[in-house]
Design brief:
Blueprint lengths: L7 E7 L2 E7 L5 E2 L7 E2 L2 H19 L6
Antiparallel strand pairs: 1-2, 2-3, 3-4
Length: 66
């Protein structure tokens, strides 16, 4: 993980799913999964977390090689 960008923990509720992320005093959110990406809206952070999940699902469901 990259350097610690600081900030306080905030809980983000998206359709009943709760995410804990860091919110920097200047107003941006830090991705709790990779710690590198920063976002200025909760919606953008949720979309980014969804991209992490899709990448993980693709890795799990690759077709076997022969």
């Amino acid at each position: 993980m990259s350097e610690d960008l600081g900030g306080e923990d905030v809980v983000i509720d998206c359709c009943g799913s709760l995410f804990i992320a860091k919110k920097h005093p200047s107003g941006y959110y830090i991705c709790p999964l990779c710690g590198r990406a920063v976002f200025f809206s909760e919606r953008d952070l949720i979309l980014h977390i969804g991209a992490h999940a899709k990448d993980r699902l693709k890795a799990l469901h690759k077709a076997p090689r022969r």
